[in-house]
Amino acid sequence: MAVRGQSSAAASLLLPPVTALLFLWMLGCGHVMAHNDLGNMTALQKHVSYFDRNKDGIITQEETFEGSVAIGFTVEYATEFAALVHGANGPITSPADAPLPHLSIYIENMQRGMHGSDTGAFDLKGRFVPQKFEEIFMKHAKTRPDGLTHSEVEDMILANRDPLDPGSWEGPEIEWGGIYKLASDNDGFLHKDDARGIYDGSVFVKLEEKRASPRSVM
User: Fold this and answer.
1) Nearest to residue 181, comparing CAs of 148, 215, 139?
2) pLDDT range class, residue 1, cuts 50, 70, 90
3) How far apart are CA 11 and CA 120, in angstroms?
4) Is it the case that residue 187 has pLDDT exceeding 70?
């Protein structure tokens, strides 16, 4: 999910042990229904729609928390991640008549949450750009052509940093770093199909299904 801002726990990309911390945000009650037509969504909208657990077109903080835990983040990490995401994207995606404090994310306006220092695989309207995605692997997959190591992910993130927009640097670190920790294989590679799934949200579904499997050891 697109994020802006900085947090010591999230930026470290460390997933601390599960704690007894309870998630207390209950801001989704009484909100209006929003447009949520998956077939007509951009890739960016699909990217975040996984976290829309009740599929009403509006993502609340508790839904982001629930989805984050479902894919493998700890309670502590998921709590802080939800706060970062909604603090940054809620106000700019909420319509003027949305209930205050405008912390829910409206999927139909998700393009407003685009941040800099990214790979360019989303265009300005949030549509997927295949050529830019392929460039990630052509430029940075140096060990094997269909996977990225941790250092190659870090090199990719650094190569895309906008020196004039330091406020955008943490978003890719949190997004790519978090998914690398959850989706990389036992040999330390983030496979190309899983990286592609970041852009349309399908990797989140895959991770949740994997954790729900009786054979899962996570």
Assistant:
1) 148
2) low
3) 21
4) yes
User: Hey, what are 59's tokens?
Assistant: 């993502």
Burial class (CB in 10 A: 0-12, 13-18, 19+), 38: exposed
- Where do we find the tokens 């802080």? 80
* CB-CB contact of 77 with 10 (8 Å): yes
Q: Rounded distance, CA 122 to CA 172, Å?
A: 13
Predicted model pTM: 0.78
Question: How confident is residue 111, by pLDDT bands cut at 50, 70 and 90?
Answer: very high
- How high is the pLDDT of residue 74? 94
Other Cβ atoms less than 10 A from the Cβ of 33: the count is 8
CB 85 within 8 A of CB 107: no
